[in-house]
Specification:
237 residues, alpha/beta, Rossmann fold, 2 domains, 8 helices, SAM-dependent_MTases_sf, EC 2.1.1.144
Length: 237
Amino acid sequence: MFAPQGPTFRELAVQALSSVERGYDLLAPKFDHTPFRTPEKVLASVAGVLGGLGPFDRGLDLCCGTGAGLDVLDKVCRDRVTGVDISAGMLAVAARAHPGAELVRADARALPLRAAFDLAVSFGAFGHFLPKERPNLFAQAYGALRPGGRFAFPMGAPARPGSPGHLALLGFDTAMRVRNAVWRPPFVMYYRGFGLADVGRELTEAGFSVELYALEEFGRRPDGSPRVRLVVGTKEK
């Protein structure tokens, strides 16, 4: 599951018993050697779709981590790109990989950047926010964009109930809830509650018009629906 350069079981256990911010500070030096980093196939597919919607000027990677999404922004944006994350450790790794990027340590729920960007992206971060926090999170993204700006992120189709993927997510979600019930500080990482219908409604309520693009590299399910979509919200002028 992990490359030889990745974290040990003990290191993962220490991270799991920390807060989200402290946990990622600890994991940062080895994060890119774990399966938690967004796969290159996803990044390339998203860049391909956004390339057809752009070009864009300024780009923002929301919850940028070690900077995987900055690679996408570098491909589709003409001006300097910016990454925001709450973890100083993750930003330190991103700074080494992307010396030309502007990196800002901030909580995505209270962004200090207003109406400055033409494109915002985010990869794999939404499970760190409780469902009740998402409306504000989407409002923050809306406020960071210029009129006509776009907010984009990939979403996989939900696993079929009873399938190995569904059971794995259910087990992980249950383990996290038990952990947070008996240990403080909490470590929020719940992905089963991030559904397309709720996300579309919350983006619309934040002021976005929403479009969905199939990431065809990942194929389609037996019913013909895409296995992975790119959700794109546009801040109307």
